[in-house]
Write a structure and sequence with these properties.
Length: about 240
Amino acid sequence: MRVNVLIIATNKYIQFLEGLVASIWDNFLCDEQVSISIFTDRIEEANALIKRPAEKDCLRFHRIEHRPFPYPTLYRFHFFNRYETRLRHTCDYHFYVDVDSLFMKEVVASDVVSDRTAVQHCGYVGKRGTYEKNRRSRSYVRRSEGTVYYGGGFWGFSDEDFWDFTHTAVEMVDADACRGLTPRWHDESVLNRYLIDNPPVKVLSPSFHWPQNHAEIHEEWARQGVDYECVLMLLDKDHATIRD
């Protein structure tokens, strides 16, 4: 099975790249043919950061521009489409993962692979979640819609479904921009709207959206009598510093 992992690492986010890539090589689909596509404005620096084991030579770098937040997150779908001719048909499945994450446990294909894979957001276990409320937005979700709120930090699609999703996502973002709108939670709002219309085949638990040192979330899980093993950790960071 050929799997492509997509990572966006521009500007100060490049500091997380080495750790994530190492954790992918150590823990993510080690029995499959995994390649990593890195979208960055600092290709030479990113390439120098990553220490390659002798048997690992599966990195692809794609140059993109950096602009202040929320551009890198809201326009990630545009970045992917920009390099569609390089990426389409090069793999069977694509997985996106936020660069400020680490795979902490071994992940095998049966855990995550499907035509449309999403992860339940760690902060909305047993809750409806914060869908887009602006009726003028293409990401708008009615009160009668939505049962599981999905996190934007990790998701995957088959090659065919991936391009259906990114093309639709670009249309949604561009239509909002023409109206002077920005979805409340950027790419995550777009993802949740799309997955209501195209439900995921596999829904992962917050084990794949496990926050580092967020006591209030872990306490809420305990109050609900649930607990999740950490598989994909969302790393703590100073948002103000990292986002320019």
